[in-house]
């Protein structure tokens, strides 16, 4: 039986060359990966955003390499066609050596096909080293969640100096061998300029339609949280309300005795039960 060929970084680069827009979505478990894969999403990001949406932290900072390996492995098992990219978490790449160790675990133990890290010029040497060793790397610029305590949760690149630096960072990542760059919370016009200047794809989140692709968080797309609606996200469903209603119905039916019914179980022959009960009665007398 012929193995299914996953999307490759070459496929993504060809999409850029053809002017073909593409979608990426976060996935954190086996079921989500299966659904996204069946929907034809070509890239799955096992984001360190799992720290908030799966583990209940307030930021991505507490997420460990162990956390990422655990979730990335489940996503890889649940998908067959998508390119699976896994985040290198906070302080797992302060130097090339640590980055290699973390990337090796994500690729060898979890089976991810690429890794993503945050930063530009400062991390370019690390990106180059990883790429030289055969590790595909996706960059991440603009609002970088691992630096939230330093830069705050706000749009990045609005001033002339900041925009100039972002352009330099993007070019440094491309020159270092990154195969794509995420642009998060970047002014739309600036993101469009970066996208035109780079030969590698840009993937926007809150950065406008001028990017080559878009990425969104699973929970934001599906409406799983009532109290979280980022400006950059569009809800394509309200599954949180659907799930809550289903659970309420289940609990009510258990309370009133309408679930389960005979259709939801199996039984045994009456004579077999009688024989069992007879034997039990005999042993207690």
Number of DSSP strands? 8
From the alpha carbons, calculate the radius of gyration and give it in angstroms. Answer: 24 Å
- Biggest sheet architecture: 8 strands, parallel, barrel
CATH level 3 topology of the largest domain: TIM Barrel
Element pattern in H and E: HEHEHHEHEHEHHEHEEHHH
Architecture per CATH nomenclature, i.e. the level-2 architecture of the largest domain? Alpha-Beta Barrel
Number of helices: 12
Low-pLDDT segments: none
Task: Give the overall shape.
Answer: elongated
Mean pLDDT over the residues: 94
Q: Please, could you describe this protein's structure?
A:
This protein is an alpha/beta fold. It folds into two domains: 9-237, TIM Barrel, CATH 3.20.20.60; 242-284, no CATH class. It is built from twelve helices and eight strands. The protein has helices spanning 9-18, 30-38, 50-53, 65-78, 96-109, 124-132, 148-151, 160-176, 188-197, 218-222, 239-256, 270-284; strands at 22-26, 43-46, 83-87, 114-116, 137-142, 180-184, 202-205, 213-216. Strands 1-2-3-4-5-6-7-8 form an eight-stranded parallel beta barrel, surrounded by seven helices. α2 (30-38) packs across α4 (65-78), α5 crosses α6 (124-132) and α6 (124-132) packs parallel to α8 (160-176). The longest helix is centred in the last third of the chain and has 18 residues, at 239-256. The termini are far apart. 42% of the residues are buried.
In terms of topology, how is this protein built?
Layout: H1 9-18, E1 22-26, H2 30-38, E2 43-46, H3 50-53, H4 65-78, E3 83-87, H5 96-109, E4 114-116, H6 124-132, E5 137-142, H7 148-151, H8 160-176, E6 180-184, H9 188-197, E7 202-205, E8 213-216, H10 218-222, H11 239-256, H12 270-284
Parallel strand pairs: 1-2, 1-8, 2-3, 3-4, 4-5, 5-6, 6-7, 7-8
Helix pairs in contact: 2-4, 4-5, 5-6, 6-8
């Amino acid at each position: 039986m012929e193995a299914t060929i996953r999307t490759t970084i070459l496929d993504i680069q060809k999409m850029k060359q053809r002017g073909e827009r593409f979608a990426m979505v976060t996935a954190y478990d086996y079921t989500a990966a299966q659904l996204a894969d069946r929907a034809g999403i070509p890239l799955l990001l096992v984001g360190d955003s799992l720290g908030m949406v799966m583990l209940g932290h307030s930021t991505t900072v507490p997420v460990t390499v162990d956390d990422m390996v655990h979730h990335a492995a489940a996503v890889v098992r649940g998908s067959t066609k998508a390119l699976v990219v896994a985040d290198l978490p906070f302080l797992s790449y302060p130097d090339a050596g640590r980055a290699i160790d973390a990337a090796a675990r994500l690729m060898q133990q979890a089976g991810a096909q690429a890794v993503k890290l945050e930063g530009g010029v400062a991390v370019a040497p690390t990106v180059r080293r990883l790429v030289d060793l055969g590790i595909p790397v996706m960059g991440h610029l603009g609002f970088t969640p691992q630096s939230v305590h330093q830069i705050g949760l706000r749009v990045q690149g609005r001033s002339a100096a900041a925009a100039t630096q972002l352009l330099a960072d993007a070019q440094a990542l491309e020159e270092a061998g990154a195969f794509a760059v995420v642009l998060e919370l970047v002014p739309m016009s600036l993101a469009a300029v970066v996208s035109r200047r780079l030969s590698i794809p840009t993937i926007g989140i809150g950065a406008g339609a001028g990017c080559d692709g878009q990425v969104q968080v699973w929970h934001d797309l599906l409406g799983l949280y009532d109290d979280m609606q980022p400006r950059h996200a569009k809800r394509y469903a309200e599954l949180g309300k659907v799930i809550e209603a289903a659970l309420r119905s289940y609990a009510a039916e258990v309370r009133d005795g309408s679930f389960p019914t005979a259709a939801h179980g199996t039984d045994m022959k009456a004579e077999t039960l009688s024989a069992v009960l007879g034997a039990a009665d005999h042993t207690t007398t």
